[in-house]
Specification:
heterodimer, A: 282 residues, Uridine Diphospho-n-acetylenolpyruvylglucosamine Reductase, domain 3, 2 domains, 5-stranded antiparallel sheet, 13 strands, 34% helix, globular, B: 5-stranded mixed sheet
């Protein structure tokens, strides 16, 4: 297995184009664990550590851009992630433990595409767009199209995630991320992300995503529509939760049974909806 | 342009550990943990789960706690690495190490190197941490004996004695 440390994005993309079995290494938090367990045997590693343009958060014309190599710790402390983008900050702060958050990166996490991880759910709810490049060019796709299935993304051979783009949050928007796991720092048994806005205690826009309850973050246009026009005490919230449960496709695994996950989703939606409406009041 | 030809894969590297520079020849897949233990014989860093869960292999990378088992040796050639062997100065245990002994925090002791390094990094950043900050800092390190209460006590003691 060869090791390369390119200094520019161009060099990295050329290396990936040359060798379809090469893998990028970002923070290593997942890839090295998988290599230790003999689950992956790349032909070569292309370290992204030396490419400074992939690191850091910057304001753009229409929002915020998070470089793929930005560690979770930096995102968790980013003041510009407010309103409907706070969900991304909350998700980053929920990943693992401090030593994991200081090395793990947003690009690495989403490219791994574990549906029980924190970022995929938050990014789908926040309607993030993923910027992807290869030697053939650049494309930007919505987060919900990026996640295809368990550990499977829209990345083609030779492609690399370079950034996550988030739209400027409106002044009245709010968001909440809530994860239920077996222990602090674990992957989600189930997690819920809510982004939306309220006026006069009534929801006027909503975007919900569920983690750990399907092969990708689960979302439902019907649920979002049911939440719009509702207040935290509306009976429609419980109905929306039922529809959301039906949309989920959870499995039994070591983190919980499918039935338990459905129960969590049923309970979590009303709770985070109420929490979001309270945030507006503050 | 074929960058692979222009950019040879690397072999030998230098690692900067506890203030000393070591020339090593790790394979790409060798973790820092393997190099520390099997090539440099710095066996104070323990191998527990080897998948980033337990935290006993914690070292400091440029002062930040990190899992040596999730760190490829090649990735840290430009960093300052601190292991448990680097905490004592001139044979004298650091305040954190002394405090851990004083409150009898170690039981089997296997988690101690990681705990001591996490505590050292915490106190460098926050000399007077409260209990919640200490617990948050320790949250990625497992002790199965388990003496968490004494470990937290030891860090509080180390913070007091540093003043």
């Amino acid at each position: 297995m060869q090791y390369f440390r390119p200094a520019t994005l161009e060099q990295a993309l050329a290396l990936l184009a040359d060798d379809p079995d090469a893998r990028c290494i970002a923070g290593g938090a997942t890839l090295v664990a998988m290599m230790n367990a003999d689950l992956v045997q790349p032909s070569a590693l292309v370290s992204l550590k030396g490419i400074s343009e992939l690191r850091g958060i910057r304001a753009t014309e229409d929002g915020v851009c998070i470089g793929a190599m930005t560690p979770h710790k930096v995102v968790a402390n980013e003041d510009r992630l407010t309103g409907r983008l706070e969900v991304v900050r909350m998700a980053a702060g929920s990943i693992g433990h401090p030593p994991i958050r200081s090395v793990g990166t947003i690009g690495g996490s989403i490219s791994h595409a574990d549906p029980a991880a924190d970022y995929p759910t938050a990014l789908v709810a926040a309607e993030a767009r993923i910027e992807i490049v290869s030697v053939h060019g650049r494309r930007v796709i919505p987060a919900h199209e990026f996640f295809i299935s368990y550990y499977t993304t829209a990345l083609e051979s030779g492609e690399l995630v370079v950034a996550v783009h988030l739209p400027t949050p409106s002044q009245d928007s709010v968001s909440v991320y809530r994860k239920v796991g077996r222990a602090d720092g674990d992957f989600a048994t189930a997690s819920l992300a809510f982004c939306g806005s309220f006026a006069n205690k009534q929801c006027i826009s909503a975007s919900v995503a569920v983690g750990g309850c399907g092969d990708t973050p689960v979302r439902s246009a019907e649920v979002n529509e049911m939440l719009v026009g509702s207040g935290p005490d509306s009976p429609r919230i419980a109905q929306a939760a039922e529809v959301l449960v039906e949309t989920c496709d959870p499995i039994d695994d070591v983190r919980g049974s499918a039935d338990y996950r459905r129960l969590l989703v049923r309970r979590l939606l009303p709770r985070i909806f109420a929490q979001a409406s309270q945030k507006v009041a503050q | 342009m074929n960058w692979t030809n222009n950019m040879p894969a690397r072999h030998g590297i230098e690692l900067h550990i506890n203030g000393e520079t070591h020339a090593v020849f790790p394979k790409t897949e060798h973790t820092l943990l393997e190099v520390l233990r099997s090539q440099l014989f710095l066996t104070g860093t323990k191998r527990g789960c080897n998948q980033g869960v337990c935290g006993t292999c914690t070292v400091l990378r440029n002062g930040e706690p990190a899992r040596a088992c999730l760190t490829l040796a090649h990735e840290c050639d430009d960093e300052e690495i601190t292991t448990i062997e680097g905490l004592a100065t001139e044979g004298k245990a650091s305040l954190v190490q002394q405090a851990l002994v004083k409150v009898s925090a170690p039981q089997c002791g296997f988690c101690m190197p990681g705990m001591a390094l996490v505590a050292t990094a915490l106190l460098q950043k926050e000399p007077n941490p409260d209990q919640a900050e200490i617990r948050e800092a320790l949250s990625g390190n497992l002790c199965r004996c388990t003496g968490y209460v004494q470990i937290v006590e030891a860090i509080e003691l180390a913070a007091k004695e540093a003043v």
